[in-house]
Amino acid sequence: MAITAQDVNRLRQETGAGMMDCKKALTEANGDFEAAKDILRKAGQKIASKRADNATSEGIVLTQVNAEGTVGKVVALACETEPVSKVEDFKNLANAVLAAAVASNSTSKEDLLATPQADGRSLNDHITDLMGKIGEKIDVAAYETINAEKVVAYNHSNGKLGVLVGLTNTGGTEVSEVGKDVAMQIAAMKPIAVDKDGVDANTIQREIEIGKEQARQEGKPEEMLEKIAQGKLNKFYKESTLLNQEFVKDPSVTIAKLLDNTSKGMTVTEFKRIAIG
């Protein structure tokens, strides 16, 4: 049957696919709109399969904290190239991913991808559809949640970095402001843990061995290596664990001291730092 421009435009409006892809799908489906939609979806699945191993180093990171300030979500929607990350359809999909995370309160990425959308199809189906339309791999690269007495979020201006920080004992009046400072500290300084107790044993052992070897190369006596390595480990804690880091805006205080000065006993319970690229 003859495929009209109106038919093509209607399918395009319903699916968001390109004009030529819609015309090809309608032609293949002999004008059957539902069959044409299935053809377009299968095209997305083919793209997904073909590009499954491709790197996704571009995209968008979004955060949201609930009205009570007690639950925070951060999601990262990744793609292969920067131009795609700026396409309106991709931005809309990123917002849909965040909205699904908030609405469903999913406990894992897998649960999030299975979340039904308004049309009854899963979030993953919608991601696959856009892959077919754009021709690139698209993936929810990260999904994290924080529950705390007070959750503060920070989004970097490039749209590719988001931080959530959970606080407790938040009795002061400047909690949100200080929480934002701490979140920005996390964004800039990339701590690996809240405190030294959160550093895994393998990392500690590796730092000790590196410290010993450095001291050995400097000609230090063998019996001094352990003590020297412990000193280097303490320096590592100060540089790499959040509460022990010097506050970027005022190096005379640590993050732990900054928080305690704001509200006695206030501290960080956990944080999430998600970056793309």
Task: Give the helices and strands, then pairings.
Layout: H1 5-15, H2 19-28, H3 33-50, E1 58-65, E2 71-79, H4 82-85, H5 88-104, H6 109-113, H7 123-134, E3 139-147, E4 150-155, E5 161-168, H8 175-189, H9 201-217, H10 225-240, E6 246-247, E7 250-254, H11 255-262, E8 267-275
Antiparallel strand pairs: 1-2, 2-3, 4-5, 5-8, 6-7
Helix pairs in contact: 1-2, 2-3, 3-7, 5-7, 9-10
Main β sheet profile: 3 strands, antiparallel
Distinct helical segment count: 11
> How many angstroms separate the termini?
48 Å
Measured on Cα atoms, how large is the radius of gyration? Answer: 25 Å
Shape: elongated
Number of strands: 8
Strand % is: 15-25%
Helix content: 40-55%
Low-pLDDT parts are: none
Given the helix and strand composition, which structural class is it?
alpha+beta
Strand order of the largest sheet: 1-2-3
Order of helices and strands: HHHEEHHHHEEEHHHEEHE
Organism: Nibribacter koreensis
Keywords: Cytoplasm, Elongation factor, Protein biosynthesis
Family: Belongs to the EF-Ts family.
InterPro entries: EF-Ts_dimer_sf, Transl_elong_EFTs/EF1B, Transl_elong_EFTs/EF1B_dimer, Transl_elong_Ts_CS, UBA-like_sf
What can you tell me about this protein's structure?
- The protein has 11 helices and 8 strands.
- The protein has helices spanning 5-15, 19-28, 33-50, 82-85, 88-104, 109-113, 123-134, 175-189, 201-217, 225-240, 255-262; strands at residues 58-65, 71-79, 139-147, 150-155, 161-168, 246-247, 250-254, 267-275.
- The chain has 277 residues and is of the alpha+beta class.
- Strand 4 (150-155) and strand 5 (161-168) form a beta hairpin.
